[in-house]
Amino acid sequence: MLAALAATFGLPRQVLAATSPQVHLGAPQPFSWDVLVAMARKLAAAPYVAPKPTPNAAPDYDSAVKATYGPAKTLAGNVRLFPAAKINAPFPVEIALVKDGQARRVVDTTGLFVGSAHSDAAGFRVMTPDGKSDWLAYMGASYFRASGSRDQYGLSARGIAIDTGSNHGEEFPNFTKFWFEETGADRVRVHALMEGPSLTGAYAFDCAKTDAGVVQDIRATLFLRKDVEQLGLAAASSMFWYDQADPHKRPDWRPEIHDSDGLAIWSGNGERVWRPLQDPAGAKMFSFRADHPKGFGLLQRDQHFDHYEDDGVFYDKRPSLWVEPQGDWGAGAVYLYEMPTKSETLDNIAVFWRGDAPARAGERRDFGYRLTWTSNDPTIDANARCINSFLGPAGIPGHEYIADGLKFVYDFAGPSLKGLTRESGVKLVSSVPQAALIAAEAYPIVGTDDMWRAMIDLKPAGLPAPDFRLFLQHEGTALTETVIQAIEP
Asked: Which residues are registered as beta bridge partners of 207?
């Protein structure tokens, strides 16, 4: 499903101005958050019915594009529908409009697609006021994404992750019904019903496009039909193929290709963590302790065009996605799933938070969180961030390399490093044992006043685990976030 995501959202974004809404609606029915929760609860008590592809779908990609882009009517002020398409979105969704506590279902899609095309809807996108672009899109299972602060799509969020990376296979519940409320030119309120074999769910999304990016306040209630081994909240999917760290792995002429370059975590104990992403040789799952999390997310820190040289899809403009739990989520961990990819069109990264408490049949779970899609790094604070990482053979440049050794280099930048010198007593702290350590040093980068470089040479064979931790410290206080580096065998 991760791999299929790029194709699901792979349609072009250029559009023509939409016309005013004149749609056929059904009879009004009372609607509220409580009504939606009751609907999800009732469904959870009944046997699951899998969705069926609609026969009223675009037969191929070209037909879907022709039905999507051009003059057509909008809903709730600025919502345009995606048509169902046999190639990538065959399952229909139900659409309704809400006003004054009454919901009216869209019973005829005539005029909602381009030309004379008529189809069932498979999802939707939210348009800018001028109708020339979109900034939010939902289509496929429980996937959705926003364009961030630089008008460019990248990674995707998911309503829930169930058994991601498990041996018995992942489950992908669907958003099957949507309700829209018009709230302003750059805002929309969306309610959604989720249905799947293991659970049902009620979701509310308050979405706003701002100068700093797109912000979504999300409220959710889940009802579990059966035990779930791994229930992942605030899930996200992304693509990482390669970056500057190891030029020998570069398969394309462009210097870097990725939607996100790292996972950032702000734990309840205040620790800041940065885990550079990788394209592994085989699928792997990692967990990072994050009790009572304050935030986590997949970030695109590198925003320099010349680091990508891509003037078609603009990886330098792709947004970061930051999750802020609302309320105390309790004890748990952030999970990172990485699998190999051979193309930039295949998503290979998944992230979510999983609580320690087992997810059991019959349970109700309520939670809320905020998503911020932005190119402004949400992890900036007093401590320094890792802004670059490099990998090479161990040893001193100009001398013979050390056999079976690796050199890891990290550049940190931030206010905590400002004015510090080699004589300030800054220490490089790492989890690398002496048996594996060859050399380590940290020093200010010449010509800067708030940037330091940390370098560590080690022998991977001497490590007790296939990763290590590293940060800079001064007088017992951490100056930087903690880098957790995984090592490929």
From this structure: 188, 216
Q: Tens digit of pLDDT for each residue in 201-247?
A: 999 999 999 999 999 999 999 999 999 999 999 999 999 999 999 88
Rounded to an integer, the average pLDDT of 163-167 is 93
Distance, CA of 258 to CA of 300 (rounded, Å): 8
Residue 50 neighbours by CB under 8 Å, 6+ apart = 197
Residue with tokens 């309503």: 159
Rounded Cα distance between 4 and 341, Å, is 12
DSSP string, 157-189: EES-EESTT-TT--B--EEEEEEEEEEETTEEE
Residue 411 CB-half CA count within 13 A: 15
Rounded to whole angstroms, how far apart are CA atoms 349 and 330?
25
Give the contacts of 116 (CB within 8 A, at least 6 positions apart).
none
User: Is the Cα torsion angle 157, 163, 166, 171 positive or negative in sign?
Assistant: negative
Burial class (CB in 10 A: 0-12, 13-18, 19+), 102: middle
* Cβ density class 195-222: b for 16+ within 10 Å, e for less: bbebbbbbbbbbbbbeeebbbbbbbbbb
In the predicted structure, residue 478 carries a pLDDT above the cut 60? yes
Rounded distance, CA 141 to CA 138, Å? 9
How many angstroms separate the Cα of 323 from the Cα of each of 156, 218, 254, 353, 370? 13, 10, 30, 10, 6
Q: At 264, which helix (H) or strand (E)?
A: strand 262-266
C-alpha–C-alpha distance, residues 199 and 208, integer Å: 28
- Is residue 148 a contact partner of residue 318, using CB atoms and an 8 Å limit? yes
Please report the beta strands in 49-101, taking only residues with DSSP state E, as ranges in sequence order.
79-83, 94-99
How far is Cα 458 from Cα 374, in angstroms, rounded to an integer? 36
Cα–Cα distance for residue pair 439/172, rounded to 1 Å: 47
Quickly count: other Cβ atoms within 10 Å of residue 245's Cβ. Answer: 19
| Structure confidence at residue 275 as a pLDDT band (50, 70, 90) | very high
